[in-house]
Design brief:
CATH topology: Rossmann fold
Structural class: alpha/beta
Low-confidence stretches: none
Largest sheet: 6 strands, mixed
Order of helices and strands: EHHEHHEHEHEEH
CATH class: Alpha Beta
Number of domains: 1
Number of strands: 6
Length: about 130
């Protein structure tokens, strides 16, 4: 399956594991294909670098580099705006549309409340893992 992950899924996979890490492991194992944009990676970097996480710059850079190694890059054009309650989430939707992905994986209620966008289902990591393990 082709996927776009929201920032919170990347963060959860790194710090807490669980289903978000299972999603990442499916990508690393080649079962799923990840699509990202520079804007998504920049947001992941800035969130991970927050002092509350206690991660140094080198560790954050290594994590971002690891994502880039397994992902296909998508160049956003700003064509999707004003769809989400949180406009920062529009980049997730645009990346998904341009990447022609099968699923958006998120833990963000602003995205999850949409349920789908242009025919692309928006699921939690748990919902996705349960769907794939059937």
């Amino acid at each position: 399956m082709k996927l776009v992950l929201d920032t919170n899924v990347f963060i959860s996979s790194f710090f807490w594991g669980g289903n978000p890490r299972k999603v990442m492991m499916r990508i690393i194992d080649g079962k799923d294909t990840l699509f990202v944009s520079d804007e998504i990676l920049q947001e992941v970097f800035s969130v991970m670098a927050r002092p509350k996480f206690g991660v140094n710059h080198r560790q954050v850079t290594h994590f971002i580099d690891s994502i880039e190694e397994v992902a296909y890059g998508v160049n956003l054009m700003g064509m999707i705006q004003g769809v989400c309650r949180d406009s920062d989430d529009d980049k997730i939707l645009e990346c998904a549309v341009l990447g022609k992905v099968d699923f958006i994986i998120s833990g963000d209620n602003d995205l999850l409340s949409l349920k789908e966008f242009q025919g692309i289902p928006i699921l939690t990591a748990s919902e996705y893992i349960n769907k794939m393990e059937v």
